[in-house]
Amino acid sequence: MSHSASGTGRSSTVASPAGQSGGTSRSGRPLARVFLRASGITALVCWALLLVWASFGTGPSSGSSGVYMIIGTVGSVLLVAVVIATAATHAGLRTIIAALFAAVVAAVLGWSVYSSMPEAGPGQFITHRAGVAALAYVFGVVGGGLLALSEFVVEGYSGGRAPAPKQLRRKVGVLASAIVVMLAAALAPAMQLWAELANQDVLVGDAAATGSATDPGLDSLADLAGVGRFTDTPYGLLRTDHPAEPTPQAVTMLDPATGAAVWYHRRWNWLSSQPPVLSQAQDLVALTGPRADNNGDFQTRVLGARDGDEVATADFDGSPGVLLGLAPDRLLYTKDKSETFSVYDFGGGLEWEAAMPDGCEGTAAQLAGGRALVLADCVPAPDRSVARDIVLAFDLDDGAPAWQREIERGAVVVPESFLVTEDSIVLDSRIEHRVTDGPFSARRFEHQLIAYAIADGAERWRVEDQTFGSTNSSACGGTLHLSQPTSTAASGVTAGGEAKAQVPASERRTVQIIECFTAKDREGSWLGVMAYDADTGERLYRRAVRLGFTPLDPEVARGWAAVLPDNRAMLAADLSLDPTRPECRLYEVTEGRASEVPFAAESADGTPIPANWCHDAQLSPLGTGAAVSFVDEDGTRGIVVVE
Question: Closest by alpha carbon to 446, among 468, 471, 474, 413?
């Protein structure tokens, strides 16, 4: 029958394409297989690209991030190329074997990188490239697994195979690749952040966790201390942990009364290029320096002095110079041998830049009262016949010169005697007079105290011709101290997190010169104090205590004295003339009356205090008393509080 023949013919015509194609295993891949294959290949490519970036695009480094990383990168790139070529030419078993082999190699190499990452600590840190490399090998494991899995996708029985449209397969492949690429783009900076956090050690107000109060061995804080001096703050003593070379950005705020840590902030992969810097109000502290594995990456981190919270982080492309001062939203740097200085905001943006007068170099600076205040040491120049010290003030907003004052010719202002309050500059302009000649010549220091208004540079008061006596030690040049560096009494926190009461302060603010000298009318050496009213310059009193051993280091001489908020001066002295047989004493000068203060023979934990504790002592104001720090026999600093 014609209709039967016609029906049979139609049946044969419909079935013929399937028969002629030789099966749909190649052209009829389901979308799941396309997605897995595209994802796997893209992940393998990301493996190679991330490794190349980790090895060559994240700055110099060392260890597992160095030569071994480069060797692994070259081998990994070649392996990825072989796997992709195999997948393109030999679908099936060969692709499965190649993909699984790549996944195993990536897993082994990834574990090698991860296991080589050190525990964070002094001189040990996880580099950015190590973190990115570990992520790269994760993509290798995932990529090899997905590519091998794509060859196992079951397509169903032959009669149910239907080829997906070519355009749809392309869209699925592009989607899969885009997802993997976006994951790589998002996870790479996340791994860098992880490396930063892994190297960071931050704790606030929990002494139990630091181990300094309940379990001294828990965190080994004392082992990190070294013998570096403390930075005095209203909230405690700021200690630089592990002050070796290079010094990491690692500091601990100690409660002097207990020796416990109030807070600490440590970033082992960032170096400190200089000691911590305090703001004029002493409520902010700045740590500045480059990354340990990339000197081109430079940051200044601003912390709250009270609680250690991070206030801001300024990023720089290379070093901006030496940090001289900071305000609530500004950072002041000097560079080019202190001949220029720059002011940046807390984001690292340059606000303005200014140059010193010809032949001048900045030696000290501070930001206060809307001014950038700079002390400059100037050599003779065309417009300057002799060397002079100059005080310059610039508007903090735009850098416009505000005023300039020259110090008396022949006088010197050391950086430690350039003091800034909220509205005034108080400085000690001193002249050194030779009294005798010879290798052990005596000299006498003549002091001239001057106070300038920050706003316009007007001279508020001046006290001239202030002298103590002659001395044979240049370290005895005199140090200047303010009884109240800031206008408001600070309230700190104890190691347990509880607020401390405000520090009582006298209604009168004083400025005091403390100097060691030889008296004309008395035998031996003396450590003298002259106190002045900080508002008027009126001299209030002069007093001295007996001194035997004379310090030869200016830093030691300054550490032997502290002026408290209630205007008392605390003095340390060694009565012996033999450094091997010290007789250390502690004195208090109140309203011109000197008296000895009993000093404990043991620390609070029962550890004996060395007999020569005063030789490297540092006295610091502490509420109604003073904190006396000294070097223990184990090389760390101990603290004793006296009222």
Answer: 468
- 417 burial level (CB within 10 Å; 0-12, 13-18, 19+): buried
Helical pair 67-89 and 128-150, crossing angle rounded to 10 deg: 20
pLDDT higher than threshold 50 for residue 385: yes
* Token pair listed for 535: 């508002």
| Cβ atoms 532, 449 nearer than 8 A | yes
Read off the pTM. 0.80
pLDDT at residue 288, rounded to an integer: 95
DSSP category for residue 477: S
Of residues 157 and 328, the one with the higher pLDDT is: 328
Q: Report the share of the chain in percent with pLDDT over 90.
A: 34
Q: Rounded CA gap, 267 and 251, in Å? A: 9
Alpha-helical segments (H) within 57-118: 67-89, 93-116
**β-strand 539-547 against 593-596: which pairing, if any?**
unpaired
DSSP 4-63: HHHHHHHHHHHHHHHHHHT-STTTT--HHHHHHHHHHHHHHHHHHHHHHHHHHSS----G
Q: Encode 504-539 in three state secondary structure.
A: CCCCCCEEEEEEEEECCCCCCEEEEEEEEECCCCCE
Residue 226: pLDDT band with limits 50, 70, 90: confident
The dihedral sign for the CA sequence 354, 359, 363, 364 = negative
Please tell me whether residue 230 adopts helix, strand or coil conformation: coil
Which three-class secondary structure string do you get for 551-608?
CCCHHHHHHCEEECCCCCEEEEEECCCCCCCCCEEEEEEECCEEEECCCCCECCCCCE
Q: How many CB atoms lie within 10 A of CB 349?
A: 9
Gap between the Cα atoms of 493 and 572, Å rounded: 28
What token pair was written down for 505? 């302060």
Q: What mean pLDDT is predicted for residues 207-230?
A: 56
pLDDT of 254-272, one tens digit each? 888 777 888 999 999 899 9
**For the chain, what is the mean pLDDT?**
82
Cross-strand partners of 641: 627
pLDDT band at 454 (very low <50, low <70, confident <90, very high): very high
Q: Residue 472 has what pLDDT?
A: 73
Q: pLDDT tens, 291-324?
A: 988 888 899 999 999 989 999 999 998 899 999 9
CA atoms within 13 A on the CB side of 198: 18
Torsion angle (degrees, nearest 10) of CA 451, 454, 460, 461: 0
DSSP per residue, 264-321: EEEEEEEE-SS--EE-TTSSEEEEEEEETTEEEEEEEEEEETTT--EEEEEEEES---
What would you report as the CA-atom Rg of the chain, rounded to the nearest whole angstrom? 35
Whether residue 139 contacts residue 179, with contact meaning beta carbons closer than 8 Å, is answered with no
Distance of alpha carbon 114 from alpha carbon 394, whole angstroms: 51
Instruction: Please tell me the distance from the alpha carbon of residue 327 to that of residue 369, in angstroms, as a whole number.
Output: 10
pLDDT score recorded for residue 314: 94
At 17, the pLDDT band (50, 70, 90 cuts) reads: very low
Q: Which of 639, 569, 568, 552 has its CA nearest to residue 604?
A: 639
Amino acid in position 598: P
Q: What's phi and psi for 206, nearest 5 deg?
A: -140, 85
| CA atoms of 147 and 237, how far apart (whole Å) | 59
Q: 114-140: per-residue pLDDT in tens?
A: 988 888 888 888 888 888 999 999 999
pLDDT for the residue 91: 78
